[in-house]
Amino acid sequence: MKIRILYFVLLVAALCGCTQNDGMIGSWFGTWALDRIEIDGTEVEPDGGGDTFFSFHTSVIRICRVKDRIVVDERFGTWDSKDGYLTLDFSHHDDLAPEPGTSQYEPPRWIYFTDLVQRMWMAEKTGRKMILEYGDHTYYLRKTY
Description:
The protein is mainly beta. Helices cover 10% and strands 47% of the residues. The chain contains one helix and nine strands. It has one helix spanning 2-16; strands at 30-39, 42-44, 51-57, 60-67, 70-82, 85-89, 117-125, 129-134, 137-143. An eight-stranded antiparallel β-barrel has the order 1-3-4-5-6-7-8-9. The protein is globular and about 40 Å long. It starts with a helix and ends with a strand.
């Protein structure tokens, strides 16, 4: 009898588990690798090198730069997607960074983000690939998981 109760509890826990805290955001959820940046049609490297990853979760975005398997830069903001645009907002602050858009909330300048709010056109968006355009900048991303 105790075994049946244990199996029942485990079954309920497995069926009620949540893989995406605070709700489903569809194909956005997960980590996207920045494969390429073009400015005026010319491919450029991120300032300072490294690999850049975008992680989407609920309304929060984390953009980090990795060098030699170590996260060397990390930025946080919020995101929203409407009418074919992806809006990234880095105008946040906290007790340690009282000025909006500073410290961990600063736009990731190594990938040429300069504004606190970036409104980017989604030229292409599938479950595995995304192309974002912002002025003369084009960002090519692919989903890693």
